[in-house]
Each structure stands twice: as C-alpha cells, then as structure tokens.
Amino acid sequence: MRGKTCVITGATSGIGLETAARLGALGARLVLVGRNRDKGNAAISRLRAYEPGVAVEVHYADLSRPEEIRRLGDALLDAAPRIDVLVNNAGALFANRSTTSDGLELTFALNHMGYFRLTALLRDRLIASAPARVVNVASEAHRGSHLDFEDLQCSRHYNGWRAYQRSKLANILFTRELARRLEGTGVTANCLHPGFVATNFGDNNRGIWRLGITIGKLVAAIPVKRGAETPVHLASSADLEGISGKYFIKCRERRPDPSAENDGTAARLWTESERLMGL
Ligand SMILES: NC(=O)c1ccc[n+]([C@@H]2O[C@H](COP(=O)([O-])OP(=O)(O)OC[C@H]3O[C@@H](n4cnc5c(N)ncnc54)[C@H](OP(=O)(O)O)[C@@H]3O)[C@@H](O)[C@H]2O)c1
To answer: Which atom of ligand 1 is nearest to the CA of 88?
Structure first.
C-alpha cells in the first residue's frame, strides 16, 4: 500500500480504526474521517504507537448532515491529490427514530446517504487515481429485509433493528449499482460483512437495547482485529484486482440475500438517493 492514500470514515473507533491501523502498517497514507476531535487525536496517537512514522491526518464531519459532508468533500479533495481507496464504514443503529435537518430518518441518512454522498463527491478523484477501490462496510443484518420505497424514511412503525437492516441492504444495493456505473473506469466497488465484532457499536443507545447489545457482544463477538480482516483484504489484496460489485464475508465472496441482488431495486435506490441529494 506504499504510495497509496486511503480515506476511511468512522476511523476513530472499532472496525474503522483497526482497518486504518492495518492499512497504515502496510505503508498507506491515512486520511481519516471522524466527528469528535478528542477521539481523532486519540486515534492519531494510537496509530503512531502502532506504526511509528505513519502518515495520518483526521478530518471531521457529522456524516448524517449534507452540509458537513459537502464541506468534508472539499477538504478531502484539497488534502488528497490522489485517493486510491475509500472505505465507507461510519454507521450506527438507533433504537429511537429521529430525523436530520433535511428531514431524513437518521439511520438512512448516516448509514446509506453518508456513503452515497461522500462517494459521489470523491468519485472523480477516485477515477483520476485509478486503479482505485471503494469498500463499503455492510452487514449480514441485511438478510430478510427489503426496501419500502413508499416509506424509505421509516415514518410508519419505526423499529431500530429493521431500520438498520434496511440501511445495510441499501449498502449492498448501492455497491452493486456503483460497480455497474464505474465499469471501465478502473475503480471497483465491493462490500462486506465484518463479523459480529466487539466494538462501540450500539453504545449510543440506552436501556434494553444497550443491555441486549452489550450482552450479545460479551457472549458472541469476535475481536476487532478479526473484524478488520475483510475490509483490509478488500482495500489491499492484489487478488481482488478488477473484482467489483461483490459481497464478502471472512475475505471470501458470498451471495447476499436475493433482495440485495435485484438490479431494479439497486437502480431505483440510486435514483431516489440522487433525488434526495438534490442532483
Ligand atoms: N460491530 C459489528 O458487529 C458490526 C457488524 C456488521 C457491520 N458493522 C458495521 O461496521 C461499521 C463500523 O461499526 P463499528 O462496529 O466499528 O462501530 P463503532 O465502534 O461504533 O464505530 C462507528 C464509527 O462511526 C462513527 N460515526 C457514528 N456516527 C457518525 C456520524 N453521525 N458522523 C460521523 N461518524 C459517525 C463513530 O464515530 P465516534 O467514534 O465519534 O463514535 C465511529 O468512528 C458500521 O457501518 C456497522 O454497521 C458492524
């Protein structure tokens, strides 16, 4: 990865931070995205302790807010004359429904529109840096879910887990359509399930949700080092040159749920996302 620049979102914690550490150790220049300066400074210290001499900087934005993503996009284009890898990773589950300033449900806004908007802003730079890669962190949670285009913002009968499932289905459909649109540019797009990983995931919630997720992590989660293996593989492995539009678990290609393989749904989600982005 020497000479390559990796932009990684959600890089101040969990899978994003570990992915950054591993790509930094492989020689990549790290351009990280966080939303909290203390956490950003702590991440830089940790990455330098892990790999002295690593080239790392952190940019800040709330990735559920369009105006902050626009500002971030400009800052990243200034900071990174080339972008070889974009890892869209920042995401969360919200037990209670809330909306952003532009009226989107928060899970959809952060987990899907955050990926969509940032990728759109960095698209031309990725193409100019080709061969380049987009890596989207999705989840097995997508299975059994479907997108309801009549109610993408989950305004009826909100359920935090269902909203999360849909957002992760959206990650796979977005990857599929992005790969199709990037054909011939030298930029690939793939997505992955990292495993059930012991991170800060879910800790933003309270009460029974927080308790349930905490117990689940204690009982069943894998260490974050293992959770970063598949994103690092997708970002860096020579074996994946030219592979695009696929879904990976444990570094192997896997079929996602049939609902995630529907080209019509993927195209419709793209059109709707563009509309929401005001394009
Ligand atoms: N953990 C799992 O078992 C698991 C399984 C499948 C998929 N995933 C996916 O893996 C990805 C990373 O999650 P994780 O497990 O590493 O959880 P995590 O430890 O909570 O990390 C999430 C990262 O996203 C950032 N983030 C959250 N909201 C944000 C916002 N509004 N704007 C900007 N950044 C924001 C967080 O920033 P702060 O550090 O400031 O909080 C943090 O850096 C997510 O997309 C998640 O859906 C996780």
So the answer is: 45
